[in-house]
Design a protein that fits this description.
The chain is an alpha/beta fold and 295 residues long. The chain is built from twelve helices and ten strands. Strands 3-2-1-4-5 form a five-stranded mixed beta sheet. Strands 8-7-6-9-10 form a five-stranded mixed beta sheet, sandwiched between helices.
Amino acid sequence: MAVVVGVDAGGTASKAVALDEDGTVLGRGAGGPGNPAASGPPAARAVGSALRSALNGLDPANVVAGVVGVAGVSALADPAIARAFAAEWEALGLRCPIPVVGDAVTAFAAGGDWAAGAVLICGTGAVAALVDGLETTRVADGLGWLLGDEGSGLWLGLQAVRRAVRRWDTPLARRVARHSGAADPDELVHWAQALPPFGALAPDVCELADAGDPDAGAIVAEAATRLVATLDELAAPAAPVVLGGGLLVADTPVRRAVLGLLRRPVGTATDPALGAARLARNYAAGTVTAPSRIA
């Protein structure tokens, strides 16, 4: 029985799916952080652990294709990381090439049956990309919180802190104060200088926005505007778009605001690991070609 596998290797966890040639799910698995840009060579072991779980009871020799989607795919250029992934495939008993592609590719595949289009991802960070098969052909933002990631979860939290320190007597400021432990604006400034994980405030901003708080609502509206502006940088206004990342997959005010601004076909990347496995089926069938780098 021919088997294909797909992996969504994230900075927090890795998830894997195994399918038969008809697209039936044969197994699922999970592992630790699989982003090689953040975790280095140990990311390969996390991805391998997820695949082992998904293949439990299946013969790895029957795997005819696989696709792994990772954030920070450029880290595969590091010889040590590339060797770690190659060693993991060998230890698993996989005999086929395993393309390692950007997570934008697998997110796009998870959102619809389109062969090409755009993906907009908003979680802790934010990025938009044009996708064609197993390749990203253009990217906008994804520059990190200091230079970009506009509209992201971290951006939401940072804007909340900036508003709170200027308008201390507001519901938003009280929520920021509770989160940070700051008793006054000076203490909040001191807290912010340590560069805490501002993105942890994103759920508070969304909750307040849903409750009608004007400050939080303004932040969310601006986030949506910036996210759509990032999408527009791709210069493909008619392309279908898949929404990915926690803030755009779940029913959040950010997702609703973005949907209100879009005038094109929209899908949602609810299961990127399954999207990766479906890409692997297409790869095995020859309907998509290999990317420039294969681990």
